[in-house]
Specification:
Largest sheet: 5 strands, mixed
Structural class: alpha+beta
Helix content: 25-40%
Number of domains: 2
Order of helices and strands: EHEEEEHEEEHEHH
CATH class of the largest domain: Alpha Beta
Strand order of the largest sheet: 5-8-7-6-9
Distance between the termini: 41 Å
Shape: globular
Number of helices: 5
CATH topology of the largest domain: 2,3-Dihydroxybiphenyl 1,2-Dioxygenase, domain 1
CATH architecture of the largest domain: Roll
Number of strands: 9
Length: 204
């Protein structure tokens, strides 16, 4: 048993609270294919009950749960979150830029639009807000393996850490035959900037 050296555990899941469990689960089913693996409902009249009425353990892969969502009906949505310390966002990653851009189109067709998107040099990311105003990042690495991505992040100059993008412009270039690497280079160079600047208030 090692009691001296730091053991590096893997990040497994995030926990959320919500006043409306069904609405949040429906949104994450659509956004990332979330499946509820276990749902616990607290029986009414239970002596010394927990502060929640139900909890869902859900995942979109082989891990038993990536998100646990606790329903607390008395909660209100925090519209002043910019003034409060909080979890700023959490993220899911794709294997290819095609998967990320295809998801953007699918969600757009469902009426789910991002709050902002950017090429961050080491990755390309699109950000959404769920019904409770939690920020969900969907991203893809711009380099072939995690070690290279980490090295590029370490070497990233502080003068330019990202370039905002319009996914529609990137998709048009993709359909015109640009490769994923060409799209990244053109995006970071500013070719796909949105016509109107993103309003980031509320997503940080």
């Amino acid at each position: 048993m090692n009691t001296e050296i730091i053991i590096h555990p893997k990040l497994q899941h995030v926990g959320l609270t919500t006043p409306n469990l069904k609405a949040l689960l429906d949104w994450y089913r659509e956004a990332i294919g979330l499946t509820v693996n276990h749902l616990v409902k607290v029986p009414p009249g239970l002596p010394n009950p927990p502060p929640f009425t139900a909890v869902a353990f859900a995942s979109n892969d082989e891990v038993n749960h990536r998100i646990s969502i606790f329903e607390m009906p008395g909660l209100s949505i925090d519209r002043d979150r910019l003034q409060h310390a909080k979890v700023q966002h959490f993220a899911f990653t794709y294997k290819s830029l095609d998967d990320l851009l295809g998801t953007y189109v699918r969600l757009k067709n469902k009426g789910i639009m991002p709050v902002w998107a950017a090429d961050q040099f080491f990755q390309t990311a699109i950000y959404y807000q769920d019904p409770d105003l939690n920020t969900l990042e969907l991203n893809v690495n711009n380099f072939d393996d995690e070690w290279t991505v980490t090295e590029q992040l370490r070497l990233l100059p502080t003068a330019q850490t990202l370039t905002y993008i319009d996914p529609e412009k990137m998709i048009a270039a993709c359909k015109a035959g640009a490769s994923a690497w060409e799209l990244h280079e053109r995006a970071f160079a500013g070719e796909f900037k949105p016509a109107k600047a993103y309003d980031l208030h509320g997503s940080y």
